[in-house]
Specification:
The structure is a single chain. The protein is about 40% helix and about 20% strand. Helix 14 links the parallel strand 9 and strand 10. The chain folds into 3 domains: about 280 residues, Aldolase class I (TIM Barrel, Alpha-Beta Barrel); about 90 residues, no CATH class; about 130 residues, Alpha-isopropylmalate synthase LeuA, regulatory domain (Double Stranded RNA Binding Domain, 2-Layer Sandwich), CATH 3.30.160. It is an alpha/beta fold.
Length: about 525
């Protein structure tokens, strides 16, 4: 039995993130992924019968139940002046089939008077009537004390009266919410302790991140006695988000010694975090604690030198504990030790004292001075190093390309790229259209190469970024283009720099294709 219970609200609170919309299929996939991670409660959505997505989700989950986690439906107390039986959302609780109901109610007198426009006593009756009704349906009932910490600061007695009302009506647990995300850890600790002295129910914490304190407030609540922690994967949620379970779980388990999930499950944290980001169609975590791609990346020369001697010098936990990886970034700031280590890791037959290794270091510094950036484009760095030592030959030779953009009277835009290249003496001349010049060029390159390298069908461009290197030059400035490519679950990034954005894009595109083919063809040769 865990010391604490984990409650995930990615599918409800997380779905309120700007830019996130989950389909029914998305929600089912995420729910089962959270179940595998060891989450105790998965909040699936609203009780509102007019929310077709959530109604269908709960119906589908009855056919595909979770293995361990308990499914939660989120609802509100009855409306002021109305009977419980006349509230369609409450009446819908029985039909949805979720074993757990979380009912949210106001505990801040300001909200009762100004948002609900009702009396304080009526709000208490709304809480009691609704909780009692859900309990009569045979549900486990949690009471979400909305705005509890703001209410406790303004009128502590009334906020605590709301908790008493929920307890008297039969609530199984109470979650204290920092709904506006404006509380400090000391305020949260004080509020949790006061609640624990008032009611004899397990307490939870639901912290929003408007002051960048959601994780800190969650830890403070646990240290004050909370036994349930709520949050979302990657911190998704209304406004600035909710407590990030990707950080809360390892902080509690690895730092505070709380038993939450198994070692195997916590090692799935990185993969789960990135899976949820992919389903949500959001950028993957980059600098998030524990699960960000940069969380265990080392660039500074002094840092890298120390890390190569002992990993504990600049890492507070081992990356593999949460399923992440350590990266040594190659750049002119990384220092010679880091670059030489990276060169050795490429298995090019060079040691750190090799003249060619030092030539690669010197070339790296020259290229980065010219605007290239290899700490985020390690595929381009590997190609540069291989070419420097004569261990790589390009898969094709460019003879020329042309890109045209045409806009007609109706405002329609047509973009076409024409390309001529040679592969082992065999020439190819082809053209393709695209949504823009880079897309057209990428399509034309792939079309020209596909009969020579059918492996290209499994390689796709997934991201394209442009940044001006020297803005003072205005429209004549150099631009840096970063291209991310993917084959299966593997991604890699390449870079190009030029005053002409098409040429910079071409450099990055070619490196992306060349590196992808290098990996694909090498693997095929090894399997043979």
């Amino acid at each position: 039995m865990s010391d604490l219970l984990l409650y995930d609200t990615t599918l409800r609170d997380g779905a309120q993130t700007e830019g996130i919309t989950f389909s029914v299929g998305d929600k089912i996939k995420v729910a089962h992924k959270l179940d595998d991670l060891g989450i105790d409660y998965v909040e699936g959505g609203f009780a509102d019968p007019n929310n077709r997505t959530d109604v269908e989700f709960f119906a589908r989950m009855r056919e595909e139940p979770l293995s361990n986690a308990r499914l939660v439906v989120f609802g509100m107390t009855r409306r002021a002046g109305k009977a419980v039986e006349d509230d369609p959302a409450l009446a819908n609780l029985a039909q949805l089939g979720a074993p757990v109901v979380a009912l949210v109610a106001k505990t801040w007198d300001l909200h009762v008077r100004e948002a609900l426009r009702t009396g304080l006593d009526e709000n208490l009756r709304m809480i009691q009537d609704s909780v009692r009704y859900a309990k009569e349906l045979g549900k486990e009932v949690g009471f979400d004390a909305e705005h509890f910490f703001d209410g406790f600061t303004r009128d502590a007695q009334y906020a605590l009266d709301c908790l008493r009302a929920a307890e008297q009506a039969g609530a199984d647990w109470i979650c204290l919410c920092d709904t506006n995300g404006g509380s400090l850890p000391a305020q949260v600790e004080q509020g949790v302790r006061a609640a624990a002295e008032t009611v004899n129910l397990p307490l939870g914490i639901h912290a929003h991140n408007d002051c960048e304190l959601a994780v800190a407030n969650t830890l403070a609540a646990v240290q004050a006695g909370a036994t349930q922690v709520q949050g979302t994967l990657n911190g998704y949620g209304e406004r600035c988000g909710t407590a990030n379970l990707s950080a809360v779980i390892p902080n509690l388990q690895l730092k505070l010694g709380k038993s939450l999930v198994s070692d195997k499950q916590i090692s799935q944290l990185y993969e789960t975090s990135h899976f949820v980001a992919s389903i949500a169609n959001m950028p993957p975590p980059e600098r998030d604690a524990y699960v960000g791609r940069s969380a265990f990346s080392h660039k500074g020369g002094m840092h890298v030198d120390a890390m190569l001697k002992h990993p504990g010098t600049y890492e507070h936990v081992r990356p593999d504990v949460v399923g992440n990886e350590r990266h040594y970034l190659v750049s002119d700031q990384a220092g010679r030790s880091a670059v030489l280590f990276k060169i050795q890791a490429l298995d090019l037959g060079l040691d750190k004292d090799s003249p060619q290794a030092h030539e690669i270091v010197a070339q790296l510094k020259e290229m980065e001075h010219a605007g290239y950036q290899y700490d985020s484009a390690e595929a381009s760095f590997e190609l540069m190093a291989r070419k420097r030592v004569g261990l790589y030959q390009p898969r094709f030779k460019l003879e020329g390309f042309r890109v045209t953009v045409e806009k007609d009277r109706e405002g329609d835009i047509r973009t076409e790229a024409t390309i001529r290249l040679e592969v082992d003496g065999d020439k190819e001349h082809t053209a393709a259209e695209g949504d823009g010049p880079v897309h057209a060029l990428d399509n034309a390159l792939r079309k020209a190469l596909e009969r020579f390298y059918p492996e290209l069908a499994g390689i796709g461009l997934t991201d394209f970024k442009v940044r001006v290197v020297d803005a003072a030059e205005g429209t004549g400035a150099k631009v840096r283009v970063m291209v991310e490519s993917r084959a299966g679950s593997r991604t890699w990034t390449t870079v190009g720099v030029h005053t002409n954005i098409i040429e910079a894009s071409w450099q990055a595109l070619v490196d992306g294709v060349e590196w992808g083919l290098l990996q694909t063809l090498d693997q095929a040769e090894q399997s043979d």
